[in-house]
Amino acid sequence: MTTLYYSHADFLNHDTGPSHPESADRLRAIDQALDSAEFKSLRRVPPPIPDDIQQKLALIHRPAMIARVLSGIPEHGLAYFDADTVASPGSKQAALRAVGAVCDAVDKLCGGQADKAFCAVRPPGHHAMPGYPMGFCLFNNIAIAAEYARRHYGLERIAIVDFDVHHGNGTQAAFYEQPQVLYASSHQWPHYPGSGDPLENGVGNIINVPLAAGTDGAVFRTKYSDIILPAVTKFKPELILISAGFDAHKDDPLASLRLVEDDYRWVTAELVEIADACCQGRIISTLEGGYNLKALAASVAAHVAVLAGISGGD
Asked: Which entry of 8, 14, 126, 127 is annotated as an active-site residue?
């Protein structure tokens, strides 16, 4: 088993301004947690910016949106695409390298060089719509990875599991009428961004599992055991992608769910078991939310330990 870890200093240069919850300190906390001897088996990979980055962006995003984002990144100071979605001079390199990370992970997993990957990237992606950025997100990293795997490697069944506390409206929109991609999301509801009703089911490939404020790990596990995990198993994916947001943690400041590190350890182990049975163990996990630094670091460490098969991780 080989697990890749993608991180890069460019991700720290995406400056969101003072007091913004999606800050570079998030990655510093993660890097520190994964720099311990426990994680020495991770293969650390510097993510590239692909030569064909425009084509990769266009797998999901409309040309006008790509142009708007890239031209809207300032030479100095900060620029706002909306009240929450900020860009700085370092944001272009960060956003393009985030896409490069997930696509390189697809290349390496589909090429048999590894079976798991965790991409510690900024900015996050799952709110970025095909036509516009939003919710801290410039480009939709996980959606681009799925479509790249589908088109470049001919995969016919890709499952995306999103356990961020916020619904991944951008990912849902990208695949709403695409039966080759299963999108399954658990999320606090009602909550930002306002989507994620169970009636939003696409062509039968969208599974939304809303969770009320105050939901704890026991209910979370029951919902996964009863709804999401059976659906992913039935789908028989050739690749599993995870939108790994850790803001459903009980200590996170942006939401009101009550998960703890062991819940992330559990759901990761369940997805690894499905991947081992269905798709040669192949999982790519990409960082989304998580804004309490201590909880984020501990939750990521639990998640990655299971992905990497590290003793004590399951």
From this structure: 127
